[in-house]
Amino acid sequence: MTTDSSPGQGAPQEESGWAFRPRKSVAGPQPYPGTAADAADHPQPHGEQRQTEPAVPSWDGGRSSAEPYRRSSDTRWDGTMPLGIADPGAHEATREPGHRTSPHDWYGSESADQESGFPPAATAVLDRTALRHPGPAAAQPRPSAGTDGERPGKTRRVGRILLTLAVLAAVGGAATVMLKQEEAAAVASEKLTRVWQIPAPAADDALIGSWLTDKLLVRASSRGGLRAYDLADGKQVWRAASPATAAKRGTVPCGMSPTLSAQGIGTVAFGKDGSTCTWLAGIKASTGKILWSLPLTGKKHQVAAPAATYLQGDVATVVGVNFLGGVDLRTGSRVWGYKARGHYCNAYNWGADGVVLVDDFCLDKKNRFTLTAYNGKTGKVIWRKSERAHSDVTHILSGSPLIAAVHTARQDAVRVFGTNGTGRKLAVGNDELTTGNETGADHSARLYGKVLVTPASAAGSAVIDGFDTTTGAKLWTQRSAVLAVPASGADDKVYAITTSGAPQLITIDPRTGRTTPVAGLPVGTGKWGFTSGTVYVTSDGSVLELNALGSNGGVRLYQ
Questions:
Q1: Alpha helix segments (H runs only) across 2-48
Q2: Rounded CA gap, 432 and 429, in Å?
Q3: How far apart, in whole angstroms, are the C-alpha atoms of residue 462 and residue 353?
Q4: Who has greater pLDDT, 131 or 384?
Q5: Do 497 and 449 contact (CB within 8 A), yes or no?
Q6: Residues 521-559: pLDDT tens digits?
């Protein structure tokens, strides 16, 4: 609804429970867009219009089905009303088929409700164009001193040219031999073959997430649901059966924890499509049993919205447009809920294993803009710092230490944050770092000691970068390769699959970037077939390929 530019005064604090905020700032600026031209499209606080949103759901277990959100133009806002959000469906129309939009890609949120479990975030995903710089010009041979009776530039010049060509030919031949020898040495002697394949359930199937145990692959997708397959033969072991009450709420996976707990439990969010979520469940990976469930919508919050979920010990965090908080992984009971700093705030949130970042604007606080890091397990503040304006977090690459790509009005930077919120920049250059292989369903970025190894995009091509997190220096770049995930979290090897020439499984030294071939893969994998998604390397050296899009295939195992 359209309202006055100044919020009402004396808004009462509501009972502890969910905190919910609008995607439009409360008389405050929106997160900064990527260009000056875009900034002109985002007016400043005065005269800004705000929307209303449904009140927040409580922890009473209400499970009403999602209904379309309708704006009312004839109702005026007062200080007792919660503020609204935009219709999530409007964003779906612009989403490319098969590409999931992270819950962090759109939202904002407001809270008159305290101690919540529901907040949102707004993320501006930056399109960076990496620039290629020409290499240095080849050194030219220095002419020798002339001899008596010879005119420079004629007979002696011809002689010099012939001599130069002869030398270059000799050097070139030697260089060719050396390159051929190095190429031959870089080819793995072992060859893997495809053992089994699971077809994609549909061409428009989108990978939501996956878990890998010693015996099972658990895969969640928009058209295939949540299923587990035997690694030995690829046969289906179980398919998650949703409770009868879930029929109205939706049974399509829309979010999945990147990891499992030590007890083999993970969390999966479900909804009516692969982008908006209405309920969360704790899943036993070995059996597919749903241990507990809780609603992400309710009578007061009927609009389904994106959500992400992460694990830290026995606590699962839910980070979404409607919900920000932690729940007990064994029972689903609440552990902590987000509490806004003031009565008139909007906030944007992002998560990873172990941490939640919240960027907020509070109209009724002296420090109107802050960026805060919360402990994902306890909900306690790790650090909070004042800001001059909003910040957008495009990616969190590591939770401990916290490494995040942050966009502000002044700069874009990837920082390693300390315990007080100060950060050291990584020398990313023109590369755009990502958490996975061109999909939010992949989480292959990982720390190897003090080295961050992460997928990246350079001039539109997929690369892998290694950074020293102590100094911020870029150590190496591996081109034409996709990063793989070792099945064992204790494995200190960096695995990758080459995407040019004959595809190979290789290892990369995290400090030097030196590569070692491990095994060849049959043509038909990689760029060859695999363009985005997750690649696992199992404990026995097998390669498990999960494509992000159904049109590129489903799952393949190579041994």
A1: 36-39
A2: 8
A3: 25
A4: 384
A5: no
A6: 987 544 445 668 899 999 899 999 999 998 888 999 999
